[in-house]
Recover the amino acids of this structure.
């Protein structure tokens, strides 16, 4: 883009923000007053945004990994995450854990559920790759994309069907399509209070566990991709598939591995969201997928750190918008930020990798 | 992002195809003998349109059951056996949206118009859907009666909550063809505000799901609360598809309300809302949660789980179990026929069908316009909760309401509310 075009675009954006801002609750003096008089609220909202963002980031990693390696936007990923949540709910039900169980008694079932959800989603993702994407690897790029949309439908209908199995799974409630209640198992001990700090900030062990789990996953993935042999092979395949093959890398295997990891992340995210939000529904994959995909694009699709950054950024924007602007406009603000960032950095915040390739 | 928009468009298209294929198959196995006698004048047909896919399905299935019950009591005939009545139940929801779909509702209305024998249309569940089907049916003089639409603008102008061109915009040929057996939201908003006052509420925060029904009811609630001296701390729309509302609830908590009123339906995440409200620390004895009849179903209690206990809902009419006289008889007969508890709107489904059967009995021929005229002038019909007529707008003259509360995961009747 030429320089004058950028300036023109910037002026147009600034104009529309100033024009639309007040309607959408952008009243800077009031917001400043609120922040100054209740700084604790700001901290609280940042915490909420951070945790929501971390969960979005884990899902975004699935999009970005797959895009990085085969340049496919795997639309089925959000729905895979939904299936992960359904698997978790079913598994917890099968282990006899419900809302009344204590945390001590449910540690082992949660752990087993984690393994189960991760394995099932990872396996499902690998199978999907094998049967829905691999045959189309050399086809025009739209073909695997359509295939991904098809898989997304299939997953969504599996979720709907699954939710209707009340005869076998009492946890599913009376109604196939209705949101399901996920047992609230993580302990709610207010950390600040037990440390003896008096404040209105509500940060419980539940939030801490979710946050730590999400961060551990992200760090683990980054270390894996940077420092292990399969991780290096993944980067090699992402950079140049043919050259990687010449170097003796089994490309099919590495791509399958990528899907395995992506699926595992989706399964884990499904369990985390269930434990954190305590509601799951068969359409949740679409919404979460949209936000996560936006996060991946925001951070620079194909870039792992970028996806994390994008996820956290979206979580923060939506929490702050709910607090200081108006929840009616939250989605509009998220996408406004996306537009602004893409105008100035078309590859996303950390998108150099992609630009290099194109 | 471009790809993303393409996706949703493709998704839409595939769903439409899918729905068409489903509908053609359910058309094929409707009432037996319906098509064989389609062309003689001795058969009239009633169709209904409700969301039979998605989280409102429990509610809607019992409405359809109520309709069938009324028809089978009349033996599917009218005018002492001279006219045969056919009935077909259409679905206006798609699995993709999980609730009613505009394209599907329009298709259902057009289908009714195209079939010569169709004289009456029972539906819809959602007021937004009725906005689409009333004008289509109006131009074909088909009488439409709804057991569940509570948005006032469909029949009358209410200051502050209906659009300036309502309701005339829905009746392009100038004649009224739409009536309803439920009272409207302006009454329900009033009812909720009265009840809030009785519960000792002083400060309220209002949320809505940004849909016609939810926002309409929330606006009226706001207006009536102010009249009763309840302080309104704020009024916001929520994103019904958001994963959680912790940020929003944190903000509301800081304002210390006694009540959060949600204008919306179960399918728009009411369960998550009440969960997050409790999880950020608003206890049921300090901050109450109240909604309209859109959350008055088992799906809400299931979705909200333990957090749902103590949630309130208003309902225009009495729950089936609390009905007396004719209503109690109906309730018993429903239970013995369908072996399940009727959801609250089932009785209105039954009454809607009664209105149509009553009108067919007056007209006794396959004439859309005559039937429309007769039905709109329904007078002193014995319903399940009392005798009712339609006023000049097509609204029922009977209005009673009830207050309900979730106790141990089930809605329970608390008290009768009056206007």
């Amino acid at each position: 883009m030429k320089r004058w075009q950028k300036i023109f675009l910037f002026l147009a954006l600034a104009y529309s923000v100033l024009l639309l801002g007040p309607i959408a609750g952008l009243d800077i003096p009031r917001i400043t007053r609120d922040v100054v008089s209740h700084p604790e609220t700001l901290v609280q909202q940042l915490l909420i945004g951070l945790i929501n963002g971390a969960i979005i980031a884990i899902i975004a990693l699935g999009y970005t990994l797959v895009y990085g390696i085969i340049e496919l936007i795997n639309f089925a990923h959000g729905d895979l995450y939904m299936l992960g949540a359904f698997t978790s709910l079913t598994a917890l039900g099968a282990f006899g854990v419900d809302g009344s169980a204590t945390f001590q008694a449910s540690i082992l079932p949660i752990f087993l559920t984690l393994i189960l959800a991760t394995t099932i989603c990872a396996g499902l993702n690998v199978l999907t790759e094998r049967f829905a994407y691999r045959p189309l690897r050399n086809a025009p790029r739209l073909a695997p994309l359509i295939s991904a949309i098809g898989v997304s439908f299939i997953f969504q209908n599996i979720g709907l069907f699954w939710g209707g199995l009340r005869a076998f799974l009492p946890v599913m409630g009376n109604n196939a399509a209705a949101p399901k209640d996920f047992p609230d198992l993580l302990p709610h001990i207010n950390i600040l209070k037990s440390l003896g700090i008096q404040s209105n900030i509500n940060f419980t062990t539940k939030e801490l566990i979710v946050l730590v789990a999400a961060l551990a996953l992200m760090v683990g993935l980054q270390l894996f991709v940077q420092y292990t042999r399969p991780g290096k092979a993944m980067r090699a395949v992402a950079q140049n598939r043919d050259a990687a093959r010449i170097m003796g890398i089994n490309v099919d295997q590495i791509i399958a591995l990528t899907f395995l990891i992506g699926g595992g992340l989706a399964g884990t995210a499904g369990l985390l969201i269930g434990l954190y939000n305590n509601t799951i529904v068969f359409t949740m994959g679409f919404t979460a997928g949209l936000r996560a995909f936006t996060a991946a694009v925001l951070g620079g699709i194909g870039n792992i750190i970028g996806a994390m950054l994008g996820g956290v950024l979206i979580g923060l924007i939506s929490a702050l918008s709910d607090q200081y602007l108006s929840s009616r406009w939250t989605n509009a603000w998220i996408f406004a930020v996306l537009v602004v960032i893409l105008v100035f950095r078309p590859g996303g915040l950390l998108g150099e990798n992609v630009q290099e390739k194109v | 992002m471009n790809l993303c928009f393409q996706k949703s468009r493709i998704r839409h298209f595939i769903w439409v195809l899918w729905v068409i294929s489903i509908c053609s198959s359910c058309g094929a196995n409707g009432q037996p003998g319906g098509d064989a006698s389609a062309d003689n004048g001795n058969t009239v047909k009633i169709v209904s349109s409700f969301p039979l896919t998605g989280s409102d399905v429990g509610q809607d299935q019992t409405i359809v059951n109520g309709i069938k019950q009324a028809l089978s009591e009349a033996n599917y005939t009218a005018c002492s056996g001279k006219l045969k009545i056919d009935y077909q139940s259409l679905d206006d929801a798609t699995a993709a949206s999980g609730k009613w779909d505009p394209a599907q509702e329009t298709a259902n209305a057009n289908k009714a118009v195209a079939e010569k024998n169709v004289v009456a249309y029972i539906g819809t569940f959602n007021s937004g859907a009725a906005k689409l089907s009333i004008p289509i049916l109006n131009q074909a003089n088909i009488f439409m009666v709804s057991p569940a639409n509570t948005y006032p603008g469909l029949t009358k102008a209410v200051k502050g909550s209906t659009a300036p061109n309502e309701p005339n915009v829905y009746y392009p040929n100038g004649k009224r063809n739409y009536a309803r057996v439920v009272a409207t939201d302006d009454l329900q908003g009033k009812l909720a505000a009265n009840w809030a006052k009785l519960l000792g509420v002083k400060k309220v925060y209002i949320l809505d799901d940004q849909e016609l029904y939810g926002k309409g009811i929330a606006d009226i609630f706001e207006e009536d609360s102010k009249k009763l001296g309840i302080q309104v701390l704020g009024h916001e729309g929520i994103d019904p598809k958001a994963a959680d509302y912790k940020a929003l609830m944190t903000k509301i908590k800081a304002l210390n309300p006694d009540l959060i009123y949600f204008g919306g339906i179960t399918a728009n995440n009411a369960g998550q809302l009440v969960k997050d409200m409790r999880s950020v620390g608003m206890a049921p004895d300090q901050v109450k949660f109240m909604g309209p009849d859109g959350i008055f179903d088992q799906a809400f209690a299931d979705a909200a789980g333990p957090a749902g206990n103590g949630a309130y809902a208003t309902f225009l009419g009495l729950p089936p179990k609390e009905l007396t006289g004719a209503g109690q008889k109906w309730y018993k007969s429903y239970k013995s026929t369908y072996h399940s508890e009727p959801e609250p709107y089932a009785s209105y489904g039954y009454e809607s069908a009664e209105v149509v059967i009553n009108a067919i009995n007056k007209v006794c021929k396959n004439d859309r316009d005559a039937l429309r005229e007769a039905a709109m002038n329904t007078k002193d019909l014995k319903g399940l909760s009392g005798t009712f007529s339609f006023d000049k707008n097509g609204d029922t003259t009977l209005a009673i309401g009830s207050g309900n509360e979730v106790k141990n995961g089930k809605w329970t009747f608390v008290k009768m509310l009056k206007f």
